[in-house]
Amino acid sequence: MVERVRVTEAAEAVIRQLEAAHGNLVFHQSGGCCDGSAPMCYPRNEFRVGAQDVFLGTIAGVPMFMGAAQFEYWAHTQLIIDVVPGRGGGFSLEAPLGVRFLTRSRVFTDAEAEELSLEGPPKRGDEVTE
């Protein structure tokens, strides 16, 4: 099974730290302002996903969504969520730790793209019950 989204070990360590402090989490990446092209991490009960959010999968057991318009640009790539030193301009939970999540990517191989095509489109936020 081809994963649309993965996480680095460093980012997973930060996710575990955030879970310990905030409980269940959710990631979302939109195309809006305030670092909107960066992955944002929120407490799961404080962020609502909707029909325009595409479910990419889970990273470290945390669901990740992307705005549908943004997904159109990224659909041909596997996203790799990483963490780097510095502060982003958004409201993501990791900001007080002096780090920020970052999306890296790689283009799917032809075989991976074919497999994803056979699976059909990813679920939308209103179809996911996590």
From TrEMBL:
Recorded superkingdom: Bacteria
Pfam families: DUF779
Protein name listed in UniProt: UDP-glucose 4-epimerase
Source organism of this protein record: Rhodopila globiformis
